[in-house]
Amino acid sequence: MRAVGTVAELWRYPVKSMGGEPLRRAWVGPAGVAGDRAWALLDGEDRWASAKTNRGRWRLFDGLLDLPVRTVAEPGESIPVRGASVPLEPGAREVVAIALPEGDEVTAGTPEADERLSALLGEALRLDHGDGGRRWGRHHDSVQLHVVTSATLAALAGADGAPLDARRLRPNVVLALDGDGFPENDWPGRRLRVGDALLEVQERTVRCVMTTREQAELPRETDVLPRIGRRNHASAGVGLRVLEPGAIALGDAAELVD
């Protein structure tokens, strides 16, 4: 095995196209990071409400990326109910809270959440949990897990010289490593051990207009996508599938398996 870096950031996106949730430790199973893209907003034709669009799969709704999301509890953890601590049963759905611009929160999977989000976005929408026949039981586009390196973020620096903010690429794992350029370009077809999980690198990730959208304190930046096109043939980071489940934590080593 050859060491290639360490885990610098871990991210989960409980609701597709909404705000990301930084983690210190994550369980990676056959469907990727536990709870990642478990929920999505769907329109009346079962198309994803998204920060990008095409005719068949996604509908563009401005403002989705600005909605913060947090996982209140995962299966096996406890949540407060009427003053008591009640454990979620193994196999239960995670409890996910979405913050609205007014400052309050709604819980994914409730009528109130559907009603409030529909009013906010101007169309009848419903939150769908991905266990209803979606790919891997999740709302992923094409792969279970996404990894990008610090070298790639540095190589995509803007005019101010600062590395590209990883949130624009919505990765699950950011690996810190020495070197420059785009090292993960050479990883497809290889296996990567990160923490306790064994992963197979499947493909370079071709980027889209989502990289340019405003989110949280990040402004709209229209040059991001052309910059990725000019410097790395429109790709940044890699998509992977999970061969062996396991835990990944900040600081864990990442090694390419010969």
From TrEMBL:
One Pfam family it belongs to: MOSC
Domain MOSC positions: 93-257
UniProt-listed InterPro entries: MoCF_Sase_C, MOCOS_middle, Pyrv_Knase-like_insert_dom_sf
Name by which UniProt lists this protein: MOSC domain-containing protein
Native organism taxonomy: Bacteria, Bacillati, Actinomycetota, Thermoleophilia, Solirubrobacterales
